[in-house]
Design goal:
One of its GO terms (biological process) is lysosome organization. InterPro entries: Battenin_disease_Cln3, Battenin_disease_Cln3_subgr, MFS_trans_sf. It is a single chain. The protein is mainly alpha-helical. It has a single domain, classed as Up-down Bundle (Growth Hormone, Chain: A). Helices cover 74% and strands 0% of the residues. Helix 11 packs antiparallel against helix 14.
Length: 462
């Protein structure tokens, strides 16, 4: 009996031991079950982290390409416009000299008489304001009408038209045999510039906000490099006609930047339709198709940006296209036509610096450049009438400050809009606001013609 009892106890002990071992195995199995997902999770997290890092690097690379592309857009879009204004004095001088059968000097369009021979202020029969009007009215018409149709056209189509008309403008002005064809060429430059500004400013709403600053810097660069290249090449005895033909490299750079360099979101391939969020890049806002009532509401909301910008441009272009050609000094190392070209360069240096400044500091009050620009008008207007400033470099300094004010007004207007206006309305709002600068330039052109004639009739003594 004791043996049987002992065998039973041993059996129970063995059974308990087996059960305990089974339980330990089960626990170990469970532990290993928990460990395996943990290792898998860590691996997944590492993969996700690497993927995220690669994605960030790719996005950063795309952003850099897009920032560069928008800088080039600004440069190329305004280049023809700037060249036409820089050449305005030469274009008109050529036609006047042809009518008067006066010989040219050193390949330029100016006549051979020296400035020291002139005791009274001399003027072109037609002021450079006439070229300004040809260089802005088509752009103004484009900008005024663009809210009606601009969102219905693809960006590829718009950019193709911009490049084609830029090319045509350079060709027409360079080969024109009379003032009519020259002005038609200037009108094509204006058309391309106006359509380009509406197109590319609207395009900024689909990219990182910093493309606004690079676009603005590029437009400033167009002014600087356009005016500088024209003044420099003509100073090296390349004729104005050949100088303008050299500029045909600009449309080629333009096309490469848009069709190759720019990383475009899918939405840009869609014409006039509502876009689902899934089609957009992460940073791309929804594209709204506004009805007429909504458009009027948005126009009213951007008047506070448009008015100061318009006034700055009225003052700025009155100076540039009424007073520049009359601000020349006798008996210095530059002739009057050369002084006009270098005034344009000086002004554009100021614009370029100011338009490139938005990432360094922001202008809080958009009315500050308006007040300062009006003061500069007063200084230079009285200088033309009374010649009380005898130093050429003082005028250079004043013109440089004029360029600074114009550049600050432009870039800070669009930067503040990008910060203060809802993303879904930004494309339309920017497209409307860019009418303001063209409106200001057109008003300046209209005022400049009678102002030029009035000043020239006064027989002002130098």
């Amino acid at each position: 009996m004791d043996n049987i009892k002992n065998r039973r106890n041993a059996s129970v002990s063995f059974s308990q031991l087996s059960t305990e071992e089974d339980m330990d195995d089960q626990v170990n199995a469970e532990d290993s079950t928990y460990l395996l997902p943990s290792e898998h999770s860590t691996s997944t997290m590492q993969n996700n982290s690497q993927h995220s890092l690669d994605s960030m690097k790719h996005e950063e690379k795309e952003n850099k390409r897009n920032l560069l592309a928008f800088w080039i857009f600004g440069l190329c879009n305004n280049f023809a416009y700037v060249i036409m204004l820089s050449a305005a004095h030469d274009i008109l001088k050529e036609k006047e000299n042809k009518n008067q059968s006066v010989t040219y000097d050193s390949g330029a369009f100016g006549n051979a008489t020296t400035d020291s021979d002139t005791k009274y202020l001399t003027c072109n029969e037609i002021g450079t304001g006439a070229i300004l009007l040809a260089d802005i009215l088509p752009a103004l018409l484009i900008k005024l009408s663009s809210p009606l149709y601009i969102q219905k056209l693809s960006y590829n189509l718009k950019v193709t038209v911009i490049i084609a008309t830029t090319t045509l403008s350079f060709i027409l002005v360079s080969v024109a045999s009379n003032v009519v064809f020259s002005i038609i060429g200037v009108c094509f430059a204006s058309f391309s510039s106006g359509l380009g500004e509406v197109t590319f400013l609207s395009l900024t709403s689909f990219f990182h906000k910093n493309v606004v600053s690079t676009w603005s810097s590029g437009t400033g660069g167009a002014g600087l490099f356009g005016a500088l290249s024209y003044a420099g090449l003509t100073m090296l005895n390349l004729s104005p006609r050949h100088t303008i033909l050299v500029m045909l490299v600009i449309p080629v750079i333009f096309a490469f930047s848009y069709f190759v360099l720019l990383q475009k979101p899918p939405v840009l391939q869609t014409i006039g339709t509502d876009i689902p969020h899934g089609m957009l890049l992460n940073s791309t806002p929804p594209r709204l198709m506004l009805n007429t009532r909504e458009k009027l509401i948005r126009i009213g909301a951007v008047v506070k940006y448009m008015l100061p910008l318009c006034l700055v441009y009225i003052a700025e272009y009155y100076i540039n296209q009424t007073l520049f050609e009359l601000l020349y000094f006798n008996n210095i190392w530059l002739k009057s036509a050369e002084q006009y070209r270098w005034y344009q360069v000086d002004y554009q240096i100021g614009v370029f610096i100011a338009r490139s400044s938005v990432n360094l500091f922001h202008l809080k009050f958009l009315w500050v450049p308006v007040i300062l620009q009006m003061g500069i008008v007063a200084i230079l207007q009285t200088q033309v009438l009374f010649h009380y400033i005898k130093n050429f470099w003082i005028i250079i300094a004043v013109i440089f400050i004029e360029g600074i004010q114009g550049g600050l007004a432009y870039v800070n207007t669009y930067y503040r809009m990008s910060q203060e206006i809802s993303a879904e309305y930004l494309e339309f709002s920017i497209g409307v606001t860019c009418v303001a600068d063209s409106m200001g330039i057109a008003i300046a052109g209209l005022v400049s013609i009678p102002a030029h004639n009035s000043i020239c009739r006064r027989h002002i003594k130098m």
